[in-house]
Amino acid sequence: MAMVEDATDLERTEAMLRDSEKRYRQLFQSAPIALIEWDVSMLKAYIETLHASGIDDLAAYLTQHPGQVRHCWSLIRTVDYNQAFLELMGIAGRNKPVDAFLPTDADDFMRMAREVILMAAEGKTAVEREETLVTTIGERKTVIGKSMVVSGHEETLSRVAIALVDISKRKKAEAALRESERRFREQAFRDGLTGLYNQRYLYRSLATWIERASAGDMPLSLIFMDLDRFKTVVDTHGHLNGSRVIQKVAQTINGCLAPPAFAVAYAGDEFVVVMPESNLPQALEKAAQIRSRMADTVYALGQGVEVRLQASFGVATYPQHASDLNGLIAAADHALFAVKATGKNAIGRFRG
After folding, report:
1. 275 in the Ramachandran plot: left (φ > 0), alpha (ψ -120 to 50) or beta?
2. Which reaction does it catalyse (predicted)?
3. 309, 228 in Cβ contact below 8 A?
4. 95-140 pLDDT, tens per residue?
5. CA angle centred on 128, ends 125 and 129, rounded to 5°
6. Is 41 within a domain?
7. Residues 196, 197, 199, 203: is their CA dihedral positive or negative?
8. What's 157's domain CATH number?
């Protein structure tokens, strides 16, 4: 709906500019959207002088002489404007702007000024585009602007009208919606208890990482870990404290990792650590770091309850131990099972 309203306002303005001078002036001042009228004739004449002096590539010239952007902009004079323009730009009263808009040193302004100058040089006076303006109080506003030459001034460009529709609120709403969608997608791949990634993300991302590893001839390692005697913690301290243990262990694991490595809450008291671009020795070293950090941590669960935890680890590496996603997970799980079967609280590598 907002897009339709914006387009309708611009179409009305375009029709207005083709009307009689008296009618045009009345509508110009009473228009609900911001309007400003420029005299671009001096800029047009200056550009023609530059061309006559042998400067054919104006874009390159402005790049080589950035000061010329501000000089060219100073040649654009303001002929008229309406109250809606003053409100848009935050200008108090009817202190007539002499320059075209308000020149600043901001990158957005310099970029816009350069584009306007080049469009004038190419004779592009009927242009519709989205721009970012900075008001007198420093507020950034996004507008849709449409320029047209007032009838009878096509040769000199002494009267060019610009209509501006403020779409800042709509852009902010669209950005908020995109952020909301991003958070929703992110939550869909997160475990509700620990905040780590979940199995869905593991299988989706691991497939991509294996493709990259294959294309780049790089290793990819997986650590499968399981808390030892976790059932005893639950039986002794209850399920609520069991959940707290899982949360705190997740924090310990995450604290040992740096991107692109990431941790996954696999199931219950099982975790998976994915280590892109890491070989077997590096993965074994990381498993040892996590194991040591856990051993040195006293997990306080509240009400004076404290526990110490141990875990078993199985490590496998692509393509050394598996040729695909499922094979890699199975190899790490097999290595973990072998550790659990021989005494727990240790790190094992896959042995096929």
Report:
1. beta
2. 2 GTP = 3',3'-c-di-GMP + 2 diphosphate
3. yes
4. 555 555 555 556 777 887 888 888 888 877 777 888 887 777 778 8
5. 120
6. yes
7. negative
8. 3.30.450.20
